[in-house]
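Hi R.,

As promised on Friday, here is the backbone we talked about, encoded as structure tokens. Could you run it through your design pipeline when you get a chance and send me back a sequence?
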């Protein structure tokens, strides 16, 4: 089964080579850098199962609704999942900053992941392909004690379902 999956993924990656690189900032906060593409555009799957052809979705403090400035990210990610990656199942991972109790942040991360799943479904991505998971505050990408760092941790990421 793994050999079949690996062969399918490798063939898929060869077919869709040529993703572009795009760097944007979130809500005027230049400390949050998003990348579209990956390693030269030839492989959409990172070594850790992260999907290189999609952008992270960022959230406001203590919120799980999709911000207006993240609507284009949802639209672009949905197009990617509906076209270049139409055959894969994936996980939306909700993450939080360190503020709040562990239990609260676990629930908030799940609400963020579910909000992204719903938004992608509205854009035509089959909900059966999407799983959700919350890391709460346990998976930070930045550990500095700054507002800019906290903003980077309030996010949803995408990984290949295993």
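Update: got your reply. Pasting your designed sequence below so it's all in one thread:
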């Amino acid at each position: 089964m793994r050999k079949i999956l690996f062969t399918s993924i490798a063939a898929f990656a060869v077919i869709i080579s040529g993703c572009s690189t795009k760097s944007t900032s979130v809500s005027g906060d230049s400390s949050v850098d998003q990348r579209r593409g990956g390693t030269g555009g030839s492989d959409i799957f990172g070594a850790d199962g992260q999907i290189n052809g999609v952008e992270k979705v960022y959230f406001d403090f203590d919120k799980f609704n999709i911000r207006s400035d993240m609507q284009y990210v949802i639209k672009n990610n949905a197009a990617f999942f509906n076209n270049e990656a139409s055959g894969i199942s994936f996980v939306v991972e909700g993450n939080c900053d360190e503020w709040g109790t562990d239990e609260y942040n676990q629930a908030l991360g799940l609400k963020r992941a579910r909000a992204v799943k719903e938004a992608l479904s509205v854009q035509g991505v089959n909900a059966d392909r999407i799983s959700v998971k919350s890391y709460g505050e346990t998976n930070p990408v930045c550990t500095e004690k700054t507002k800019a760092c906290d903003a980077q941790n309030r996010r949803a990421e995408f990984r290949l379902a295993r």
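One thing I noticed while checking it: The domain at 2-160 is CATH 3.30.1330.60 (60s Ribosomal Protein L30; Chain: A;).

Thanks again,
M.
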